[in-house]
Amino acid sequence: MQDVILVTADSVRRDFVDSMSFVSIRDVMTGVAAGHYTRPSLAALQSSKLQAAVQSKVIGHTLAEAFGDAGYTTIGLVPTPQADPAFDFDRGFDRYDNYMSGGGNAVENRRSRLREYLGSFDLVRQVYRRVYPMEANMDDLPDDGAVITEAIERFNAADGPRFLWVHLMGTHRPYGTGSEAVPTEIDRTAEAAGGRHWFGSSSVSDDDREIILGKYRNALGRTDSQISRLLESIEADDPVFAFTSDHGDEFGEEGYYYHQGYRRRVPDPIVEVPVVFDGFDVEADWCSLFDIAPTLAGAMGVAVPDSWDGTDLTTERTETAITVAPWHDKATVAWRDRERTLVASDADVSYHMDGDTVGIESADISEDVESQLRDLGYTDAG
Question: Fewer Cβ in 10 A, N or C end of the chain?
């Protein structure tokens, strides 16, 4: 059986993938993200279930479990608090590391429900941002090079066949550390841009926008080089390789920059991401991230659970895609085909299956994980 390498990189827009020369030399499909930020999108990717996007956690039989059941050694290296084991992202992995200092133990949760409730109001959020500007930094995360080095070592030391999932954060706002990153004042201004402003405008100048775009493209190039190093350094004969992103980022197209869970936005810059399959053929040029798991499993002859909602692209095409943008107790939901988009904004959403009904709930996590999310520029865990 062939080894399988799945690489996801944070915040990669489909229309910017040309900045990734190693990835884009392959056939690149347009993928539709399952969520508007990392957790619901990657949870849906690993679970291939709409419920996973609704509840922003891994649910049911996962891609890693499917490969593990087929005899694969499964390795996951995902350096983000969004993929904390509190959200069951470690399910099915023989070795899983999200590089966070604190675990997401709901029993030890100490965060303020009052703060969370007040933060759901736009005016309160803007007051808070004036006192505590929402900048992002990745100083506490391992850089992509360190993650790739560990991935190479763990992959080469493992018994085959092997399934490896690596998520890379170098492409997440502010697109680097130190001088590589978007300068702090520009980052703060950009994050606050868009929407109604109670305390004057927060607009990004043309020059500052060009700085942001330049930092972003440079970050894409650096991450691309690390992906190339991974594929060149692993000890595997003709491995299958897949690449995608969890979501994109906005750069002022409708006044907004980056991505934020509380906005529940689903425009094309956030939703459209690149998808690459290398090592087998697919019957598609457009897909949903729900399709990643059944396609990789199907291509390797691994049993595809009946509970999965995605399509095996080795045998058929996807005609429609759904994006769920949950935050606290509501969600924006977008239905797409190749030509049309239907959006229901800020709606009460529940998921019905086999007699069970589940809705969107606020995440119940430790203060450690929540503080790590704030370091990345998120208002809270959603």
Answer: N
